[in-house]
Amino acid sequence: MAFETTNESVGEGRTLYTGMTKVNILTVNPTNEELENLGYNVKNKDTDPVYFNEKTNSRLIKFLFNATTKDKNVIKGDVSFFIGNKGVASKPGNVQYVDAKGNFKWFALDDSGNPITAGVKYFDINTMDLAYSGEEFLISFLKTLLDIKKDKECRLDNMASLYENGDVTEIKNLLNTFNNKRNIGVALGVKQSADGEKFYQVVYNKAFERAWSKNFDRLILTLDSDIKEGYIKDFYGYSPYNLTIFNKEQLTNKPNIPVSTVVNDLPF
């Protein structure tokens, strides 16, 4: 486990939120028993959730969280990531790699299929390995959650087992080992169904804010950029994204705003 740290559809009646807040991470890819222990209403008690999308051949990594507002209301939700196979080339033919400190970089390949590493800076080519699709955002989340410093190791050792078998033991061990580091800043949003009749709570999964940060500046910068570029279809409120109870009227003047997180059909 290559992580180093320091000490330093929405059911009726459910309130949805937009904006930024700190949340408490509870678990990852829970079984039915874990869900019931956390107070969730499990729809299908005979079969544990299968965190895999056969259509896209991708593994779902789902972190459940809760948060309490200033008005003592409880927010429940999840931060989710889809992990695809490794070594998938981009349109220009580049391939993404990750080093031991959780840095990610795209490399062009030579005629033999090897990455061209000449002149590379701020990336350890001696520890580089092919990255799985979506791994960058998962590692960014864990790095922020566990407050991993730039000079510390930050890479999952069992990505192959995680992708192929859905084995999240390493991540659960991390959550248990660093149990005092369960808080993280997120951007809450709302996804509208295709027919416009239903709304779902979602979470932006490309950037997060460390628990000790007194603001959401880093998160706002990335979210604003994605909104400006038209990459986001979901509604996160309006900058500076103060935490707000969602209502349909807020969509009336909605700016053109994907990474949207998963609206799933799992049994909870």
Question: Could you explain the architecture of this structure?
Answer:
The protein is α+β, with helices and mostly antiparallel strands and 268 residues long. The protein has one domain (2-86, 133-251). It has helices at residues 32-37, 135-145, 159-165, 169-177, 217-228; strands at residues 2-3, 17-28, 52-53, 58-68, 74-83, 95-98, 104-107, 129-130, 154-155, 183-192, 199-203, 209-210, 244-245. Strands 2, 3, 4, 5, 10, 11, 12 and 13 form an 8-stranded antiparallel β-sheet that branches. A 3-stranded antiparallel β-sheet has the order 7-6-8, with no helix packed on it. A two-stranded antiparallel ribbon has the order 1-9. β3 (52-53) and β4 (58-68) form a beta hairpin. It is globular, with a radius of gyration of 19 Å. It starts with a strand and ends in a 23-residue tail after the last strand.
Order of helices and strands: EEHEEEEEEHEHHEEEHE
Radius of gyration: 19 Å
| End-to-end distance | 30 Å
Structural class by helix and strand composition: alpha+beta
Keywords:
alpha+beta; globular; three-stranded antiparallel beta sheet; single chain; 268 residues
Describe the SSE topology.
Blueprint: E1 2-3, E2 17-28, H1 32-37, E3 52-53, E4 58-68, E5 74-83, E6 95-98, E7 104-107, E8 129-130, H2 135-145, E9 154-155, H3 159-165, H4 169-177, E10 183-192, E11 199-203, E12 209-210, H5 217-228, E13 244-245
Antiparallel strand pairs: 1-9, 2-4, 2-10, 2-13, 3-4, 4-5, 6-7, 6-8, 10-11, 10-12
How would you concisely characterize the structure shown here?
This protein is of the alpha+beta class and 268 residues long. It is 17% helix and 25% strand.
